[in-house]
Design brief:
Helix content: 25-40%
Structural class: alpha+beta
Strand content: 35-45%
Shape: elongated
Order of helices and strands: HHEEHEEEE
Number of helices: 3
Length: 155
């Protein structure tokens, strides 16, 4: 075999390897156009919040089974936004309530700086994490703006 042929085979192999890795990395950051990502795009449009690009995510969801609280992992889609105003936060909550979602008592948490609200409807679950914007002394800003992360999927 000639050195040129060997070089050609090595170059073609390298291009295929790089292409495959690039495709794999890209797929890990893109959410498929399934009902979860369609739901999240509608949330983006209806609330006017400038969310990040939808990502494929896994998150923890608490359920009650046989009288015990258990944690399961949910595969789905998620995105986040920074500096979400009080008005926009209300629009996000209204979006879920208008579509018949119920708050899930096993997926609620509240604190002075951060909070968590779980919503569910017919096996479809969403977690909304809110974190207060802080001033330079670590106190929540008076504006009420928060950073928000939303993750949804089928339980």
């Amino acid at each position: 075999m000639s050195p040129r042929f060997i070089l050609l085979v090595v170059m073609v192999g390298a291009v295929m390897l790089i292409g495959g890795l690039s495709y794999w990395l890209l797929q890990s950051t893109l959410a498929p156009q399934d009902e979860t990502s369609i739901f999240m795009e509608e949330l983006r449009e209806k609330t006017g919040v400038e969310f990040s690009r939808i990502q494929i995510v896994e998150f923890k969801w608490n359920i009650r089974k046989n009288g015990e609280i258990k944690e399961i992992r949910v595969q789905g889609a998620g995105f986040s936004a920074k500096n979400v105003s009080v008005d926009q936060q209300a629009k996000i909550e209204a979006f879920f309530e208008e579509r018949g979602f119920q708050k899930d008592v096993y997926n609620l948490a509240a604190g002075t700086i951060a909070g968590l609200a779980g919503y569910k409807k017919d096996g479809f679950v969403c977690l909304i994490k809110k974190r207060s914007r802080l001033d330079r002394w670590g106190r929540p800003l008076a504006t009420g703006e928060r950073d928000i992360e939303i993750k949804c999927g089928q339980d």
